[in-house]
Amino acid sequence: MLLCSNNENASKLCYNLKIRKKDCAVITEVLAGYSYLKEATAKIIKKNSVLYDILAGRPGELLLVLSAAGKNHYENVTRFLAEISGIKTEITGNDLQALKIVPSKNYRFILDKILKLKLDKKITTKQEEIEAASAMIKLLR
Asked: According to DSSP H, which parts of the chain are helical?
């Protein structure tokens, strides 16, 4: 019922039902992101980095509601939670510093690109991550 509603109606409902502000904020966030995510995950997303970009950082409540929207939604959310969300880079800012990169916004850019390569299984080891970071540094200079 709330998914067909807007944030103003949700806020009124939360107030009338005496739902805590923190919980109401979660409900409002779910409503705000649901339509976009429902459309974005309507088809099976094969590329892990694309699925990660769409679902990473979303509240669990939103992923739960989204997974109930249909078979493809369920498959995408399940794969994200089971296989993708736990993947992290092995290198850190300290490794980038060891490569003589001055701390900057480039750290986030490089680490994000490394993560996407890792998600898509183009690199698998820490050494490959370091090599990819070195190549990116040369391109950024």
From this structure: 7-16, 21-40, 48-55, 60-67, 71-79, 93-98, 105-119, 126-140
Q: Supply the pTM of this predicted model.
A: 0.80
Closest CA to 54 of 82, 84, 29: 84
pLDDT of amino acid 6: 53
In 3D, which of 117, 55, 42 has the Cα closest to residue 82? 55
The pLDDT value given to residue 2: 47
Q: Give the pLDDT score at 108.
A: 92
Which are the contacts of 48, defined by CB distance < 8 A and separation ≥ 6?
83, 84, 87, 119, 120, 121
Instruction: List, as one string, the DSSP characters of 2-39.
Output: GGGS-HHHHHHHHHHTT--HHHHHHHHHHHHHHHHHHH
